[in-house]
Protein: Baeyer-Villiger monooxygenase
Amino acid sequence: MAGRERERKREKEPGVGREPDGVREHVRVAVIGSGFGGLGAAVRLRREGITDFVVLERADAVGGTWRDNSYPGCACDVPSHLYSFSFAPNPEWPRNFSGQAHIRAYLERVTDTFGLRPHLRFRSEVRGLRWDGRALRWEIETARGALTADVVVSATGPLSDPKLPDVPGLDAFPGKVFHSARWDHDYDLRGKRVAMIGTGASAIQIVPAIQPDVDRLTVFQRTPPWVMPRADRRITGVERWLHTRIPATRALRRQVLWGIRELQVSAFTKRPKELGLVEALAGAHMRKVIKDPELRARLTPDYRIGCKRILLSNTWYPALARPNVDLVSAGLKEVRGSTLVASDGTETEADAIIFGTGFHVTDMPIAQRVTGAYGTTLAEEWKDGMEALRGTTAAGFPNFLTVIGPNTGLGNSSMILMIESQLNYLADFMRQLDVLGGGIALSARPEAVQGWTRMIQRRMERTVWNTGGCDSWYLDANGRNTTAWPGTTAEFRRVTRQVDLAEYEVLRPPGPDVTPVRSVAAPEEVTA
Structure:
């Protein structure tokens, strides 16, 4: 009787409290992460009538990458009205490209508007997940205790764990060292000699923001980025009034922003040579500011635009042209005391080192903590490259869905569109479980995952990411593009609209605990 009473209490108060007698708490769904993906999943679950879920967050607030990245100048490079949920429009965006503080505030409002606070578990970093093949549920160990769940939604995101290079001598550097995603706001950069390592999306925002305050700023550039003008401006009060009072104007604005980007996709995925005109525009943008021919040559990429992420900035080149900024056209090789040595031999004295060296994208740390039906971790299964059916489910990991999984990244549009498509897939996944009956699980068939992956990689062959002549974070250690989606967002929405049960094995509670046997069927190519 007491056990049934506890179960009823959990159904009434999802995600609240702990079991007093040591019995492991059980929930229908456990969501990992509270960024756009995790909060979106939580909203979608509630809209589907599912309230027995928790959101496990390792930090003490929601926001994901927009909580962690608070460096000077941090802002989005996707227009605000497209970089927001379709089900939670914000007519009050202050700029075309809003800053980190406004985006984080937006996610806090989404949390409150949709009643997600009772489901949140802060300071609950997931330390391990293991599939229980007999009970058909996930055993989850967190920093604040253990629980089990029928379904796990991993929404940790690819931009959550900073990547620091292994630089000899760095441990003995006497000054300050931090990554752009772990900004030390207590350290005063004014009057300091600062080294910025990297020239990616974070660096081109940080450098202009700190350049006026530092004594000397040295930028270490291994590969120059393509940089386009940033069409940013303040959104007027009249526009905000119209978007609030006449929602159709807001919807139209979003539709136009989306449509323009959909039209650009074919150049990235099918006809990279058409990007030559864009390269000319980027070159003109640089020549307007950089008058020194030698510096222009060092800032001009030798690969096709779009091969790496195209960056947007009106302040990057002006900052590099300032007299207190030096550009080193090489990566950081070693550190000798306070002296930084580049791979070309250049030596620089520094008081602080800021790493803008990206994240663990193709080797997400969460994969090392997930042990599936075969007794192997997701990282072990992905040792030759990440792969998941429709970017969401991996073979051997039943009832485990990844938001922003393999080959769901974009080079020119809003990731929120891709997230919402995966939320559609999650919703239908839960419906299928209900239709099939309680106590069952769905496991992606290996042949379906392999077929999907073959289709993706075949289409990837002619994309700018594979043919553009660069080495980017889109590619894994084996040179395979396991990050980007080679199509439009509309196409991805279509292929994730619903779950095809033919691509899944339906698991029911077994008698004796038998380790599943891998399928050896020849993979069929999936069409998208």
In short: The chain has a mean pLDDT of 92. Residues 158 and 361 are 5 Å apart (CA to CA).
